[in-house]
Design goal:
Elements lengths: L2 H28 L8 H5 L2 H28 L6 H31 L7 H40 L2
Helix pairs in contact: 1-3, 3-4, 4-5
């Protein structure tokens, strides 16, 4: 793969991380309940703190994808570090999916009866689906890469 395309994809990953971080910082200020709260009360909301804790898995997966692209740029695709990066991405996607489902269930059970949680639940379903697709793709690529790595090491032992 050309070096320019690797750098472009790494820049896209960094841009996704910056946008996600900006959304995490800015969104609580625009929420409807935040109109008459002070700054500490806005960011100390348990659901906002849960969102920040759940986003750790997202940012770890972005970092591992950035590292994986670095391995590809160094022609180290068929290495154990690439397999480990894909395994980490898979686990982060699974954890994120479970945390999103837990948040959706919590909102469904504990929401105010005057509120309609349909929008939030639709976002939870969509984000869970995307996370499950990422986990499945990472698992497939991990398996393929592990098989190729096994074949490469077997061929290296053959005279």
């Amino acid at each position: 793969m050309k070096r320019a395309s690797i750098v472009f994809l790494q820049a896209v990953i960094v841009l996704i991380g910056i946008v996600a971080l900006a959304i995490l910082i800015r969104f609580p200020l625009t929420e409807g309940r935040a109109a008459n709260l002070d700054l500490f009360s806005i960011y100390a909301d348990p659901l906002i703190l849960y969102g920040y804790a759940a986003s750790i898995a997202f940012f770890v997966a972005l970092y591992k994808a950035f590292r994986l692209l670095g391995y590809i740029g160094q022609n180290k695709v068929f290495s154990s570090s690439s397999v480990k990066a894909l395994k980490s991405i898979k686990y982060c996607a699974i954890v994120l999916s479970v945390l999103i489902v837990a948040a959706g269930i919590f909102i469904r059970i504990a929401h105010n009866k005057d509120d309609d949680p349909a929008g939030f639940l639709a976002m939870c379903i969509m984000a869970t689906f995307v996370s499950a697709v990422v986990a499945t793709a990472a698992a497939i690529f991990e398996k393929i890469l592990q098989n190729a790595l096994d074949m490469k090491s077997e061929n290296d032992l053959t005279i």
